C-alpha cells in the first residue's frame, strides 16, 4: 500500500487492481457454507462436492460473479434448466420434480424401453431449493454428472451445460 499523503496535498485516485477489486481475490472458486452447521451431500463418489466442468457451469460462474462485490455477471438471460437432451439417441426428457428415469418404471418408460443398459428404475430427478438435482437409485450401470459417478440415493445438482450420463447415454442439461 502506498505511503499516505500529507493533509495538505490533494487526494489522488489510485488505480484499482481488478484481481483484488473491493478487497476480494477474483477468479477464485466460491465455497458456500451451509446454514445451521449441516453439510451438503452432493452425491459424488470422488469428492462429495458438486461436479464442475472445466471453467465451471453457467450457474456456478454466475454465482461466482454474484459473490464478488463490485462485479456483475457477464452472462445475459441466464435460464434455469428445463430438459435433458441426448442427441445420439434422440431422447428429450422434460425435467419434472420427483420424476423417475427407468426402462420399466417411471415417467420416461417410453423413451428408455429399448435401452438395455438403463436399469428398470435407474434415477430420480428432483427440484430442491430452486435447483434441479439427479439421484442414482442403485442402478446397475450408474449415473454420472460431468464425469463424476453418483452415490446411490444422494442428490447431485445439475446446471445448464452439464453432462449427465445415464448408463451409456450422455445427456446435456438445457
Structure description:
With 174 residues, the chain is mainly beta. The protein has a domain of 113 residues: Tumour Suppressor Smad4 (Sandwich). Helix content is 7%, strand content 22%. A hairpin with a 4-residue loop joins strand 1 and strand 2.
Overall geometry comes to globular
How many E-type strands?
10
Any low-confidence stretches, pLDDT <50, length ≥5?
1-13, 16-42, 44-76
Structural class: mainly beta
Rg over CA atoms: 22 Å
Give the name of the CATH architecture of one domain.
Sandwich
Q: Portion of residues in helices?
A: under 10%
Work out the helix count.
Answer: 2
What's the N-to-C terminus distance?
46 Å
Give the spatial strand order of the biggest sheet.
Answer: 2-1-10-9-6-7
* Strand content bin: 15-25%
Give a brief outline of the structure.
Residues 1-15, 48-72 have a biased composition (Low complexity). With 174 residues, this protein is mainly beta.
Sum up the structure in keywords:
single chain, 174 residues, mainly beta, Tumour Suppressor Smad4, 6-stranded antiparallel sheet, 4-stranded antiparallel sheet, 10 strands
Write the layout of secondary structure elements.
Layout (H helix, E strand, L loop, with lengths): L57 H9 L16 E4 L4 E4 L5 E2 L7 H4 L10 E6 L2 E6 L6 E3 L2 E2 L6 E2 L5 E4 L2 E5 L1
Antiparallel strand pairs: 1-2, 1-10, 3-4, 4-5, 5-8, 6-7, 6-9, 9-10
Amino acid at each position: 500500500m502506498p505511503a499516505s499523503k500529507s493533509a495538505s496535498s490533494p487526494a489522488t485516485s489510485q488505480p484499482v487492481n481488478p484481481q483484488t477489486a473491493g478487497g476480494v481475490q477474483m477468479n477464485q472458486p466460491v465455497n458456500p457454507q451451509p446454514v445451521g452447521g449441516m453439510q451438503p451431500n452432493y452425491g459424488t463418489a470422488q469428492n462429495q462436492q458438486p461436479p464442475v466442468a472445466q471453467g465451471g457451469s453457467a450457474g456456478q460462474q454466475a454465482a461466482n460473479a454474484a459473490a464478488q462485490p463490485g462485479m456483475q455477471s457477464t452472462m445475459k438471460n441466464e435460464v434455469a434448466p428445463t430438459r435433458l437432451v441426448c442427441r445420439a439417441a434422440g431422447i428429450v426428457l422434460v425435467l419434472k420434480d420427483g420424476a423417475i428415469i427407468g426402462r420399466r418404471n417411471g415417467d420416461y418408460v417410453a423413451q428408455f424401453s429399448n435401452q438395455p443398459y438403463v436399469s428398470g428404475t435407474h434415477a430420480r430427478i428432483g427440484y430442491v431449493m430452486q435447483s434441479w438435482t439427479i439421484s442414482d437409485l442403485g442402478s446397475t450401470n450408474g449415473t454420472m454428472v460431468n464425469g463424476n459417478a453418483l452415490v446411490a440415493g444422494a442428490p447431485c445438482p445439475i446446471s445448464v451445460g452439464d453432462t449427465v450420463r445415464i448408463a451409456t447415454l450422455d445427456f446435456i442439461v438445457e
